[in-house]
């Protein structure tokens, strides 16, 4: 089972990344400290780093676990961010993670993309659970997950390293939607 290479929503095209997207990814979000505050990676310092991320993302589409989409705004073609669907080892569940372009925050784009991945997942007969985690201080991300219809299930203590926030592992909330 593989997710489609193109998913259309009201305002977005979720599509497979291309290497040529590197400058837009770098400028749009990868270089910004405020974007990476609750992420596992450091801000990029060169376009080459963003290109490497895209190369790995493109390669991963040949595998069976990680499927990263760039979110292209239909009106104008700018990028609103990226969202990655992860098929877990146990095939009845999937998870996802995302990063939004700094200039596009607060316009509902990430909620729209998250809903699209949840919709696709529940169209697959074998998938019963979609989940995501967010740092306890990452309020915008928690809002995205709530607006996408997910419920906060609990606190995962010392769950993730977010090196831009702290040298120690951080507490995260677990959000999920099931059927
Ligand atoms: C999390 C993120 C992807 C949200 O993207 P987005 O496209 O702005 O999401 P939406 O517009 O759908 O919703 C954002 C919500 O957060 C709210 N919000 C934004 N900034 C906020 C703040 N500083 N404090 C509280 N709420 C905030 C918005 O008001 C909105 O909620 P509302 O619709 O109830 O008003 C974006 O903030 C981001 O890229 N953050 C950095 C990367 C990241 O943390 N990724 C997630 C890792 S788990």
CATH topology name? Aminopeptidase
Shape: globular
CATH superfamily: Gcn5-related N-acetyltransferase (GNAT)
Binned strand content: 25-35%
Give the topology string: H per helix, E per strand: EEHHHEEEHEHEE
Low-confidence stretches: none
Number of strands: 8
**What is the number of domains?**
1
- Mean pLDDT metric: 98
Count every helix, treating DSSP H or I runs of 4 or more residues as helices: 5
CATH top level is Alpha Beta
Q: In which range does the helix fraction lie?
A: 25-40%
Summarize the helices and strands and which ones pair or pack.
Layout lengths: L5 E3 L3 E4 L6 H9 L2 H4 L10 H14 L5 E8 L5 E9 L5 E8 L8 H15 L5 E7 L3 H9 L3 E10 L9 E9 L1
Parallel strand pairs: 5-6
Antiparallel strand pairs: 1-2, 2-3, 3-4, 4-5, 6-8, 7-8
This protein binds coenzyme A (COA).
The site of coenzyme A has 23 residues, from strand 5, helix 4 and helix 5.
